[in-house]
Amino acid sequence: MSRGLRALRPGWVLSAPRPGRWGAPLAIALLLTTTAACGGAPGRAHEGSGPADTSEAALTYGTRPVRDPSITYQPDVVIVEGGPRAIRSASSDGLTWTIDGKARGAQDVRLGKVLYATSRAVGRVQEVRRVHGDVVATLGPVEFTEVFRDAHLTLDQDIDDGALHYLEIPDLPGAVTVSADAPTDAATEAEKGAAKDAARDVPTTARTIGQTSVRAAHSGRVGIVVARGPVRAAAGGTLPPARSSSVTADLGDWNAQPYRSPGAFGLKFNHKAAAGLKVFVDFSLKTEKLHIRSDVPISGGRVADGATFAVEGIKSVAISIAAGAANGVIDNSKIRAEVPVQMTLPIAGTPFAFNISWKFSVATALGGNNTTVTASGEWGLDGAIGMVNGSIVTPKLSVIKSIMDSVTGVSVGVSGIATAVEFKVQVGVGVPAAFAGPYAKLVMDFGVTNGSALGAPLTRCVGATLDGKVGGGVGVSVSAVAMAALKKLLPTMKFQLLQESLTPFVHRQQTLPDVPLCKS
Predict the structure, then answer these.
(1) DSSP secondary-structure letter at 185?
(2) What is the pTM of this model?
(3) What is the DSSP secondary structure assignment for residue 489, as one 8-state letter?
(4) Could you tell me how many helices (H) and strands (E) the chain has, helices first?
(5) Whole-angstrom Cα Rg for the chain
(6) 334 CB neighbour count, 10 Å cutoff
(7) pLDDT value of position 516
(8) Percent of residues, the chain, with pLDDT higher than 90
């Protein structure tokens, strides 16, 4: 049995309609057994048997669509048969897909239709052409309900972190960062627009379900995120194969590395050891039987009220921060980035992929030459994140290791660093930049300050802030800056997003010692 199949053992079930609750929506047959199916022909629930498809093509491009009587696709969805074997290549931004022109359904791909070739090659066709008999299609975002008219997504399943693979999207729209202080005369209009969005403190946007309160995801601590430009113009820019080992993404002056280990998920990011600034952050989530619980009925192209998608098993969150500046304030930097590396797992016998994605932001405020700041802390989390019966659920937080006890460093002026990390889990379909389906996310904001060494004879002041927020919904979860990048790449795209709401579950702020000098 493959590792991928062990990761998702029976738990996707054949859902029968529930009379009196949602009427009679059709159900997605999501049956995983040791002989899980991998697709099928029209009119048959599943065709063929065997373990989950963990081939390089499936891990990179996703699984094939499912032909099942219990699933009704929208009328403008064009299904291409053959699954990942029909994919010749994908561009390094994940938007342009080259498909075997002989695959069944390929000749039906038209401008404006929704192409569905694999779980990662799903989107509304923005451009299509024939090249040497193959079909080359550029895809834009689609809503979950623009693909499925009637379906029922249910899941009650542990996730094996060892089965996840890393998928790098080198030119993920919106991922490239530049300094917030970059000269504006060198910026394009799209870049200036992204900068304005960042300056206005635009939160992540999405279509969501549930009653929540609006909070900005990275309040006051964002830089500029821009697109690199159409990958189609670059020679040989293709999506690299998925891999089992971690990937370090190059983000201008920064690096980011998502990672997994038994019982833990994390993101390391650092400013490259150049010029005078050095920053290293390690954010981690400790887990115990990471578990996904989902109940999302779709009927008539609408998600029914009371949907559930929750992530359970996150036991704690920890962070370690180290920063230094050789030249004081002139070395400071502010950035915001969407990490172009996702953790993924195809789900056999279903039209979906399991996906984990990351975002982060950093702002340094280091004063004085040869300044350093270090800090670390860990907090327990008790409870699920996401949405249950249409409402956002949040965990309870407890202190395992106080970050206040660890703040240290050397500075002739007051110095600090602020960072935020977003961890998002999603099951669905779509291009990497605009994945569609039920999701849950955890956003943690941290800030630490270290007082001036000149004040040490009197007292040295230290401070810390902690904010935690949870989001969840069903649909496309995309940031405003990523949407700006997509619009630049796809000028004919017509897709609107609603503002996402995040529900806060903790806000703590402390300054020590508790004396008037520090409070001022």
Answers:
(1) G
(2) 0.82
(3) H
(4) 5, 29
(5) 23
(6) 20
(7) 72
(8) 53
Identity of the amino acid at 85:
R
Give the N- to C-terminal CA distance of the chain in Å, as an integer.
63
Give the span between the Cα atoms of 32 and 373, in whole angstroms.
50
Enter the DSSP assignment of 301: T
> What is the pLDDT at residue 350?
72
Torsion of Cα atoms, 243 then 286 then 172 then 302, to 10°? 110
pLDDT at 61: 93
Residue 412, both tokens:
């002739």
Nearest to 481 by CA among 229, 254, 224, 252: 224
Tokens representing residue 468 in the block: 């935690």
The rounded distance, in Å, linking the Cα atoms of 66 and 45 is 8
Neighbours of 494 (CB within 10 A): 10
Q: Please list, in sequence order, all residues whose beta carbon lies within 8 angstroms of the beta carbon of residue 491, skipping any fewer than 6 positions away.
A: none
* Single-letter residue type at 433: A
Strand ranges (E), 383-414: 385-388, 391-393, 396-401
The structure tokens listed for 127 are 């451009």
How far CA 139 is from CA of 60, 217, 245, 493, in Å, comes to 17, 27, 29, 9
Residues of the chain with pLDDT under 50: 1-51, 179-235
Please tell me the chain's helix, strand, coil percentages from 3-state DSSP, rounded to the nearest 5. 15, 45, 40
Structure tokens at 226: 């821009």
Element (DSSP H or E) covering residue 481: helix 480-489
* Sequence-separated (6 or more) residues with CB below 8 Å from residue 116: 65, 73, 77, 78, 79, 80, 122, 147, 351, 429
**DSSP string for 327-369:** EGGGG--EEEEE-SEEEEEE-TTSS-EEEEEEEEEEEEE--SE
Q: What is the pLDDT of residue 33?
A: 24
Q: For tokens 């623009």, what's the residue? A: 146
pLDDT of residue 511: 86
Beta strands in 263-307 (DSSP E): 264-274, 277-299, 302-303
Please name the residue ranges forming H helices in 120-241: 189-199
Contact 264, 130 (CB under 8 A): no
pLDDT at 203: 32
Q: How far apart are CA 64 and CA 41, in angstroms?
A: 11
What six digits make up the tokens of 170? 């080198």
Residue 477 has a pLDDT of 75
- What residue type is assigned to position 297 of the chain? P
| DSSP reduced 3-state for 453 | helix
Q: 120 and 94 in contact (C-beta within 8 Å)?
A: yes
Do residues 346 and 59 lie in contact, with contact meaning Cβ atoms separated by under 8 Å?
yes
In this structure, are strands 77-79 and 114-118 parallel, antiparallel, or unpaired? parallel
